[in-house]
Amino acid sequence: MPTHIEHHIHHIDITQYLKSLWVIPVLIIFAQSVIRITDNPLITHIPTWLFFFNPIIFLAIFAAGAYWAHQPIRYAIMNNTHQSLEQAMAALPMRALKGFGIAGLVSVVFILGIIFLTSLFNQHEFTPRMFVALIMSVSFGLGIMIPTTAVALTMAWMAKSRKRLSLQNLFIGDLEHLHSYPWLIRSANRPWLIFGVTSLLPVSILALFTWLMLGSTDEAEQHFILMQAIVLFCNLIFGGMALIWITSRTIHRITRELSTGLNFLRQGKFDGHVAVMIDDEMGELARGLNTALAGLKERDSLKDSLAIASDIQKGLMPKDEPNIPHYAVAGFQQSCHAVGGDYFDYIKRHDNTTWLVIADVAGKGYPAALTVANLQAMLHALANGENISLLDAATYINQSLYSSLQGGRFVTLFMAELNHKNHELQWINAGHIPPLLWQQGSIHHLEATSPPLGMLESINLSVETTLLNMSDTLFACTDGVTEARDAGREMFGDKNVTAWFQLRHQLDPAILPSSMLACLDEKGFHTRDDDITMLCLKRND
What pTM did the predictor assign? Predict the structure, then answer.
């Protein structure tokens, strides 16, 4: 690494940081314009020169907050230490929250004081209802919306800067303390913060304005409150659009970087590196990708690469069965070679639902195994998304596989989302062997409703819903079971699987895979030229 890092990171100095906050002066000028246009009698008593001087004061206050938030980064640059730079970057969001929060509070107190003193000198009647309405309107605009937008801009700048530093090998983002990231930037909390700023607070304030107007008979008072409601509404629309735009661009930049890491995995470029752009769950994914890339690069250089590849693939499979209330789940995977193209998984989601997945990649060996690794990485990344549905996940995987798979290869996939609270099983079958469901004394086949993934750029995927009752049992497998052959080269076939399941559905899911293997051996189907994978689910109570 370079000895003098200040010569390489001019793009993260205070000037560049302040430039990234350009939305703040736009919001302030817009708010001032709306206030002036509404022509509130109390507001228009403020001298014109002072009214136009206010934005300069506000900008100075928020610039001071930005300067304070950026100070640790400035010190890190001066001290030429990489570790302190990473620590400063990690602390930036919380410092920005404090700095801009205080700046917003100071701005609110300043403008309220100016308006109140001006009203006294002009002997304008300033009623308690007017005062409450003014406090709510000003506090929302200067005290909440603008500081929140400034923090969002800070996080966007931080993500962009980390990417640049990573390209220069000046930022790794793997310090141990960074794994305990603050609540502010957790991806699970950000939608709630945006909801509070753009929905809950402004709607509550507008409801308060309505109550204040209904309780007043003074026309001037009602007019003042109405104008404050208009100011708040305009600030909400413009500021909310800016906040969502900033947040969406930041998320897009981060997910694009994660996609780059997935491409590294897919293309076998194990010397690649993913920038850790933010210290939240997505940052954990980036660190995980870097760990995987580093591990793959190291193992790829070893002589016994085939055995190592087998270990890696085993690591992609679940190590333990999930603890799902009311259900027993079990999976089994056996490769006919060191590495294979079969895959199964159960992935816990943030809403306590569980994704159950079984897939079969066309082909064998390293190409199929790499596709399995890519599929597993995509599924776990998608499962961490707040608003990713089963259909969204399957659609994204199909498009990604279509752009990466070559030579007519494809992936059959059965993917289900289990909700243990209402016992709903939503599922998608993309060209996979129909899983068997024992329900109400008979066997149902969960037939494929679309072709395999990766064959077409756009396919019509449909989500089916099945309600699971007591003792209902699901058995899914890959074609390694149905295509097992006997001495006469006859295949085991779907009918034999169905007949076996008819007799064995009452068994515990943990026993079903070994029961199937025993059945194959007893009937003489010893020749297995393909991977065998099974996934079993049963509702116990």
Answer: 0.52
